[in-house]
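During data preparation, a discrete fold description was generated, as reproduced here:
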Amino acid sequence: MKRLYNIFTIAILAMSLVSCAKESITNTPDTPISGEEIDFENSIQFNTGITTRGQLVMDDYLQDDFAVYGYVYRSSWQAAEAMAKLHDSLKEIGYDGHNLELYLVRLLFCLFADDSSIFNKNIFYEYVRNHSSEDGSNLASVINEIFEILNTPTDKRLKNISDELNAFPYVNGKLFEERLPLASFDSKMRKIVLECCALDWGKISPAIFGSMFQGVMDTDKRRNLGAHYTSERNILKLIKPLFLDELWAEFEKVKNNERQLKIFHQKISSLRFLDPACGCGNFLIVTYRELRLLELEVLKALNGTQRVFNIADLVMCNVDQFAGIEYEEFPAQIAKVAMWLIDHQMNMLCSAEFGEYFVRLPLRKSANIIQGDALELDWNEVAPKEQLSYIIGNPPFVGARLMSKEQSAQIERVFDHIRGAGNLDYVTAWYAKAAQYIQGSCIKVAFVSTNSIVQGEQVGILWRVLLEKYNVHIHFAHLTFKWSNEAKGKAAVYCVIVGFANFDTDNKTIFEYEDITGEPHILRAKNINPYLVDAKNTLIENRSKPLCDVPSIGIGNKPIDGGNYLFTKEEMVEFIELEPKSAQYFRPWYGAVEFIQQKPRYCLWLGDCSPSELRSMPHCMERVKNVRELRL
């Protein structure tokens, strides 16, 4: 028997159910869905359909989340590009900075609400279209009217406002609380706003769109918007072994025992999470979604197929279980709003399952996203240690030699000026802060990091502090894998994931990759040492003298030429046009960046050039002169 779903159900099911089980989506429509009701089975094709309870099922944790979510990704990209046009138009007239960022975040909420049952369908679009003049001269006032009404409780609104305006719900959540200066629009900008409204915002994924939305603010990054997207597959690599697999296993044990299942429900609703480098909230969004999917299975087990008349009394998980710290204001704002959006998507999923519309308005709870420097803030003020369960995230990847002076000074302070601190990558400071924070607690931590922290000289510096000062025990680890996405021109980053705590466990797991772009196989370990191998904790310190009778190493591959002898391919071609005889003296040159990111550079290698030959090449002589002056 075919099952009919309302339009909002299709949007939510297509986007949100990503971790439940076994089979994969093989085809999804590219065109927007229209109509009040549609035939679900004919709209989205499955290998084996859906279960009798309507549960969407997928291949075990996304073999290729871009293939599975292709249309969601495209929709999110289109939405981000539309917002980029609007951003540019407003910035061009001088509406910039904090005002512009908050304005766009508010518009994002309204556009999403218009297509996802937070608002009555299309009331934002229709109000903007019907009440603004074609030249756009009053559009800013029209939008401001909406922002004001969204921040006004229904019982405090003026009695004579139009029914159209009064149809907007009271949102609260402080999103519309701050008064912003009026923007200004013209006919072209009004057209852009209406084009944004015309997109199906019900299809966007908060986990994808947030990062893309951040990218539109930086024109240098915009050509590679997808590079900001952290794939859900990689996020699941962290959260599954940290807590999710364990929770699902516990659910399977108690699902047929009502009393124990209710206790389990209380447990998952009391869990607290912190991402101290949350960006646009990708890790928080996916984690919350997975928690709500688990809660939905709990509710289905407790209530069976019976119709539920007050879902709000059943759903216990909420966004205030999550906290984050983000250095920049704009992504912090996006993260908070994105958590509301994913919450609404999951509420719609509950509505579809139990047959009652469920929306949380006004917004009474929010994720505690703090704008600030995570290395300077007291994490306990953001998320009290006695309440926290897990720390997750993907702290910034900045190499020791690429940090700013301020970042280097932070590393020195966090590590209490220990010998060798200057050789540590920026991400190691989050390990030290987390290790200090979790002392005497049952909090578990997992971070994505560049693999440099588990190899070479950093191991002896970082892990001696973590092991000996903070008594850290590694519970699980993903060995080196390639962290990437589908964006063009992306830089390859080779990462590890390390899960640790202030207490030991007998259940230690290593995820090993034969192919760094593929899937891992699982190894059970007695102990996971700082090199992420099953062996006792051993640290190899750096030393200045060789162990045996071999020549000492100098400074390695380090040019001291002020850039005079190094060329990109384009620069080399231009130089050879000026100095044709120099062509024979160019050699390929490889440093870490050139090797890892496959960015070819070339060196003007004049060691074999005779003095007379060199004097015949004035442009080469000029380079030699510059280097001589640099080195003297």
